[in-house]
Write a structure and sequence with these properties.
By secondary structure, this protein is mostly helical. Among the domains are: about 90 residues, no CATH class; about 170 residues, no CATH class. The protein is built from 23 helices and no strands.
Length: about 450
């Protein structure tokens, strides 16, 4: 079953690349690969992931069966989120050159010499995750785990909680401005605004959010800011060059994606897969003379691809559920009631909608769905508030939802990679900040609209 799972994941990546490079559509082959990943990956899943996948699979399949939908819709449902699987699987390959080149130890040594307190390490981790996520999307999670895990294990006692809080917030806040963020694309489409209109207020809000996160961590530490003593490192003489090398890789990734975007090569997720695979391959080949390459490649084949064992089946099931829900007509049936409420509440409806987006994520309703739904509803409602306020409110609701729901893809990936429960990351370690950000973000949205709308 493990071999079938690996082959299914490779097929998903290859088909994704074929679509990006040549515009070819192998939807039925992708369907077979997706079902293969679902079936072969199910035994690899943890119990929590299995339960969630079963629930979404049964509900989604039930809605599709009850609606008597054609087989073509089943195919689209099973393949609708395979692009996320491809991104996460390809980003796992960055662990190979990072391991061969000892980049984790180099960054550990660099941070040991420069970041003396937990607060400075916290904001550095947050900013790094934020930058990586702006172009890697969900693929940034395994990359940051590979880069920061050695340092955090050595210097932070409760490193898993520390990492989860910093990286979750850095990740989520990037969706407020990143051009590759699906959430922002949906918000722009729903409100009729251009990306450039939303970029500046979203970018500023993201950095205000990271600053607030850093302050809450500083206050919450009750003055206990010191890190554990650093161990002696033999990597010190090369640390600067390797850190610069990592920054060069990041810059190259950004440049490559920008070039692909300018050339109109594929869609956003496809460009990420193509750029990631190309850069990881070049980076790995550049270290071919270092010892351990063959062992690292074998380890990646045996273990690296299996790290998406929880995620791949889950996203196939989530795709079936999301498509089934959209096709059921339930959301369209509820729209008139929401419209009536919006007319009655006026501007307060925007606050309510942002809260609903965050709240419904707790039961697995993806922000993609709710943003589209409420965006459509608000387009038919005459509200005396600027469109930029509506756009920011939808973005804030979506960002808060990602932080607080254990069903968020990046939280589930993170929980798998660092070995903690998804509920601990979302509900245990981030719910207070999520609610505070939701409230503060809505105030910001109305203030920005009043001043510049």
């Amino acid at each position: 079953m493990k071999s079938l799972f690996r082959l299914s994941i490779l097929a998903i990546i290859v088909i994704n690349l074929a679509g990006t490079l040549f515009g070819l559509s192998f939807e039925y082959l992708l369907f077979i690969a997706g079902i293969g990943a679902l079936v072969a990956g199910f035994p690899l899943m943890g119990k929590g992931f299995q339960k969630a996948a079963i629930i979404f699979l049964v509900l989604g399949a039930g809605m599709l069966l009850f609606g008597g939908h054609p087989f073509e819709l089943w195919v689209r449902a099973a393949t609708s989120m395979t692009n996320i699987i491809a991104i996460v699987a390809v980003m796992q390959t960055f662990a190979v050159p990072i391991k061969i080149g000892g980049y984790g130890e180099a960054i550990k040594s660099w941070m040991d010499g420069r970041l003396k307190g937990k607060s400075s390490l916290f904001i550095f981790l947050t900013l790094t995750t934020h930058l990586l996520t702006s172009f890697l999307n969900m693929g940034s999670v395994p990359v940051t785990v590979s880069l920061f895990e050695p340092t955090l294990k050595a210097r932070v006692p409760d490193w898993k909680r520390f990492f989860a809080r910093a990286s979750t917030r850095g990740y989520v806040l990037s969706v407020l401005w990143s051009p590759g963020a699906v959430n922002l694309s949906l918000v722009v489409q729903a409100t009729g605004l251009s990306w450039s209109t939303v970029f500046i207020p979203g970018f500023l809000l993201a950095f205000l959010g990271m600053g607030a996160s850093w302050l809450t961590e500083l206050v919450g530490s009750h003055g206990k800011n010191a890190l554990l003593p650093q161990a002696d490192s033999h990597e010190g003489r090369a640390e600067g060059g390797r850190v610069v090398h990592v920054l060069g890789i990041v810059a190259s990734f950004i440049l490559l994606i920008v070039i692909l975007e300018r050339l109109n090569v594929g869609v956003s997720s496809g460009r990420t897969v193509l750029a990631g695979l190309a850069l990881a391959l070049v980076w790995t080949l550049s270290q071919a003379r270092r010892p351990g390459l063959e062992a690292a490649l074998k380890t990646h084949w045996r273990e690296g691809l299996l790290k998406v064992g929880d995620i791949a089946p889950f996203f196939v099931a989530m795709g079936i559920f999301s498509t089934g829900l959209e096709a059921s007509g339930f959301l369209e049936a509820a729209a008139p009631l929401i419209k009536t409420a919006a007319d009655a509440l006026g501007a307060a409806s925007v606050i309510l909608i942002a809260g609903i987006i965050a709240a419904t994520s707790l039961v697995g309703l993806h922000p993609f769905i709710t943003i589209v739904l409420f965006g459509k509803v608000l387009s038919y409602v005459s509200l005396s508030i600027p469109p930029i306020t509506i756009a920011l409110a939808l973005s804030v609701g979506g960002a808060a939802a990602y932080m607080i729901t254990p069903f968020a893809g990046m939280i589930m990936i993170m929980s798998r990679l660092i070995g903690v429960k998804a509920t601990d990351i979302a509900l245990g370690w981030n719910w207070r900040f999520s609610l505070a950000f939701l409230a503060g973000g809505l105030v910001y949205a109305f203030a920005w609209g009043a001043l510049f709308g």
